[in-house]
Amino acid sequence: MKKNGLIIAIDGPAAVGKSTMGKLIARELDFLYIDTGAIYRAITWKVLKNNINVSDENIISNLVSDTCITIEKVDCKSLNDYCHIFVDGEDITEEIRNPKIDQNVSQIARLPKIRKQLIYLQRKLAEKGNIVMEGRDIGSVILPQSDIKFYFTASEEERIKRRYKELIDKGYSIDYEEVKKQIIQRDKIDSKRKSAPLIKAKDAILIDSTEKSIEEVKDNILKIIKKYRECREKTN
Ligand code: CDP
Fold first, then answer.
1. C-alpha 182 – ligand 1 centre gap (Å)
2. What's the 66 CA to ligand 1 centre distance in angstroms?
3. pLDDT digits 0-9 by tens, 109-143
């Protein structure tokens, strides 16, 4: 365990269940939960709001420098409201889940200058420890010193089904084929980009959630964390 508390990293492709599991684990351990995808989504929200071209790296970089992003624990009982994200003081937690953000976020997240700027914020948020941080490059780039790294996977079909249901439940009218297209395209951009692509860190534990219930996955992860803590206590 690090001096400042435990750091748990979760990486994986789109709609694999990182957020649900990350929040459940954080709640169970009373840790802070940081969804780094929400940070990229927040920037995308501001870029679209200002009608900026998603490939204009310099203008987006200036916008990032001029943006204050904060994440706050709001309601620990509710998974939906566990943490809220604010851009320049405005709560945009709901808005960043709009399919329009899904369509554009990976175009912005692939820009090296923007990724570099956001490293500092993500590391700063993790400084105090006792956190679960999830994204695409947490175990590989942002926090390679994490105590435990998980890499989540699930079949493409399962992930598309989950995201489709999530969006329909939220009241968006979107068709299945559109969700499928967006997920496939996002995964492709995220894993093929030059700067911090989505990869499984060598020392990450693979968690395949296809055909597994949320409870099963959660129990398995908590068992791994418990064992890690016990082992650390003995050796410290
Ligand atoms: O929830 P979902 O898995 O669909 O996506 P997300 O975690 O909210 O991430 C949205 C997008 O942000 C991803 O598709 C990536 O393009 C980008 N992202 C990234 O590049 N690096 C991260 N650490 C987290 C997200």
1. 12
2. 21
3. 999 999 999 999 999 999 989 999 999 999 999 99
Q: Of the candidates 117, 123, 137, which has an alpha carbon nearest to the alpha carbon of residue 191?
A: 137
Across the strands, what pairs with 205?
A: 150
Using CB distances shorter than 6 Å, the residues near ligand 1 are 14-15, 18-19, 36-37, 40-41, 105-106, 109, 135-137, 186, 190
pLDDT(2) > 60: no
Kindly give the distance from the C-alpha atom of residue 1 to the centroid of ligand 1, in angstroms, as a whole number: 27
Residue 187 pLDDT grade (very low, low, confident, very high; cuts 50, 70, 90): very high
Full-prediction pTM beyond 0.85?
yes
> What stretches of 22-179 adopt beta strand conformation (E)?
32-35, 69-73, 83-87, 90-91, 131-135, 148-153
Domains identified in the chain and CATH numbers: 7-228 (3.40.50.300)
CA 212 to ligand 1 centroid distance, Å: 23
Burial annotation 99-120 (CB, 10 A radius, 16+ → b, else e): bebbbbbbbbbbbeebbebbee
Closest atom, ligand 1, to C-alpha of 190: 16
